Amino acid sequence: MEAIGTLAGGVAHDFNNLLQVINGYSEMALERLEPDHPLRGHLETIQRAGQKGAALTRQLLAFSRKQVLAPELLDLNTLFREMEMFFQRVVKEDIRLAFDLEPGMGPVEADHGQLEQVIMNLVVNARDAMPRGGTLTLETRSRQGFATFSVTDTGDGMAPEVVGRIFEPFFTTKGVGKGTGLGLSTALGIVEQSGGTLEVHSTPGLGTTFTVSLPFATDLVPKPPVLEEPEPATGTETVLVVEDDEGVRQLTAHHLRAAGYQVLEAQDAATALERLHSFGGPVHLLLTDVVMPGMGGRELAHAVRGLRPETRVAYMSGYPDALAASDDAWTESILISKPFDRAKLLCMVRTALD
Length: 354
Ligand code: ADP
Ligand code: MG
Known about the structure:
12 helices; Heat Shock Protein 90; alpha/beta; elongated; 5-stranded mixed beta sheet
């Protein structure tokens, strides 16, 4: 599990750099395009694909536990209806889909992408259990302070000795290339992290029910509606941007210059230190990647603090928990997690400077 997690986390990190470029440049291009330009539709499609990619890397990071949970208020019934298209696509025609949703249930507090992943894993398992067709029932209920949902199939069911092992990572009864044995162990991890439980009832020959219980959200204050985007925070200070990925660096520098900042660029720590030596004026902020070939972002920040104690530091990283294990100077720093958009970048830079 750990090795796979590390691998997935590493891939997600590289992928976040690519998404940063795709999402950033499509955002920029869309801003410049006339509202009725014939290419607008194409660009919007690229942007949507990039946003889906960002959701996917969040899932990968969730799996590798490198993801900070982003809980939000969710209505299970709405979630199931949103996912109906997905259910239609995974089940064949010989499987009947039945919904039995209890109306008026309160919201739960959970991570949207992760909860979707739990549901997907259970639905795919239910499908696999019914190779000759059957009925797949999705049910929601409120039960003693918990919102529950269950996924029931009329498939093969499981013998007790199989039930005893299904939550083990890599346990699968499916053929090579068909099962990974990671579906239920991942689902259980997510449910437990959200303060819930995952139960199973199975009868050989008759079918299986998986039931997830999640505590109702206690904080029922609705989130304030997102009003119009505030004016982007601007500034005139000097920012040293250090990032080995050229696309990400140029995009970041572009956004900062457009907002009024003076920008110095460097592709690695050594170049950054050279820039600092040859630049006469004050450098107000070091904005650096964390993981870079050669000297990393933390060491660079340390060196810069030695040379120019007044320079503030902010990090950009594809690992949301990059700051987790840390000394004091490190935790006091600001982290901008990739992929970020212009508004988030400018807001974080302003915060770091102020
Ligand atoms: P995978 O689906 O890759 O095998 P999972 O962790 O999702 O891995 O499931 C582990 C095992 O649990 C499956 O291989 C199967 O034997 C059993 N299983 C899971 N869901 C069901 C189900 N709905 N009906 C029967 N068996 C199931
Ligand atoms: Mg599975």
